[in-house]
Amino acid sequence: MTGGFGEQVLPPWRRAVLKVGSSLLAADGGGLSPRNARALAGFVSACAAAGREVVLVSSGAVAAGRAIVRADTAVDAPIAERQALAALGQAQLMAFWQGFFERPVAQVLLTHDDLRNRRRYLNARATLAALLRQRALPIVNENDTVSVDELKLGDNDTLAAIVAALVDAEVLFIATDIDGLYDADPRLNPGARPVEVVARFSAGLLAAAGGAGSAAGTGGMRTKLDAAQRAAGAGIATVLFNGTRADVLEGLAQDRLRGTRVHPARSRMAARKHWLQNAPAEPGAIVVDVGAAAAMVEKGASLLPGGVLAVRGDFRRGDMVEIRCRDDDGEQPVARGVSQYSATDIRRIARRHSREIEAILGYNYGGSVVHRDDLVLV
User: Fold this and answer.
1) What is the C-alpha separation between 292 and 297, in angstroms, rounded?
2) Is 33 annotated as a binding residue?
3) Is 273 part of any known ligand binding site?
4) 3 inside domain
């Protein structure tokens, strides 16, 4: 038994996000240490061998940069100094992780604006999906070199929860330096009891999580629970486990958890459909023929350009739009979804085959006007 945590079996999953913080990577004398990273990388490789996909959200750039210049930068140092260390350390961090894998790793740096702006959000999602199709390991971090304090995502726990929703993950794995969640801080209270399952969040539970955990990182168990709460709202389960224990990671690769499992508030599909149904739509609509409407309604198909008859209004890529079907009785709403192309672009590719998109526009955001994952029937 690990820290009083019994073993529980995780449900099947296909895609996950793994968050690894600075406390697991920072070396005692500065820089990055393979001490814990080797077993974490082994977990990622075991998942890939089983046909699963993992996106890694990794801290450690500032720690790596600090070792390069031998700087002792305080947590409250001017942001420009911390940004400079992050810029120095990013290349080191990528090289560090690449050393554990034969397949390529790919750096993806995101900012608050990338995730707030719907078009950039879609671009980030498309890039991550393409990297996974190419069997690369995406390594995500906040783009600290251009972020400003008032627009920072806060910490990589929050970023990991956002990325989990971005890539439609089923589970968010958060590696910590303790065995899981307790009902009190186990470093201060020897009688603290393990919390193996969180079915719902309460003020008492969040208070028990406390504050920051180590000098190397920016967040403790509280930020991890906040991230788990965010993920739960998107229909994603969260697993908190001890990333310093190779035996825990070996078991986790076989869906055996010794740690804390946080249940999602609702199913991932229900959370996604709720957002699609309630997000405000832009004025205008995409008008489709009967065949395209039938394909969406009866087969759950994406909307392809060949089925588009007309476009109303002037919306942009990434906007929520109404989809209307034109038949002998007029036009009726049939669905709503996130448009992969602007109204101007759709007018140019309407009634054309998907393979002609790039020749017509000079670029290609995919073969569908509205992908079925971004579409809900009305």
Assistant:
1) 9
2) no
3) no
4) no
Q: Any binding-site annotation on 218? A: yes
Flag whether 145 is marked binding. Answer: no
Q: Is 176 annotated as a binding residue?
A: yes
318 is in an annotated binding site: no
pLDDT tens per residue across span 206-245: 777 765 444 444 446 888 999 999 899 889 999 999 999 9
DSSP 117: S
Annotated binding residue at 6?
no
Least confident stretch, 60-74, 99-113, 129-143, 233-247: 60-74
Residue 1 labelled as part of a binding site: no
Looking at the structure, do residues 150 and 90 belong to the same domain, yes or no?
Answer: yes
User: How many domains does the chain contain in total?
Assistant: 2
Q: Which domain holds residue 294?
A: 279-377
Q: Any idea what the CATH number is for the domain that residue 182 is in?
A: 3.40.1160.10
pTM of the model: 0.81
221 labeled binding residue: yes
- Three-state SS for 143-189 is CCCCCCHHHCCCCHHHHHHHHHHHCCCCEEEEEECCCCEECCCCCCC
Which pLDDT band, with edges at 50, 70 and 90, does 145 fall under? low
Residue 327 is assigned to a ligand binding site: no
Same domain? 208 vs 83: yes
pLDDT tens profile 292-319: 999 999 999 999 999 999 999 999 999 9
- Same-domain check for residues 42 and 74: yes
Same domain, 47 and 98: yes
| Helix, coil or strand: residue 131 | helix
Residue type, 56: L
The annotation status of 222 as a binding-site residue, yes or no, is: yes
| pLDDT at res. 53 | 98
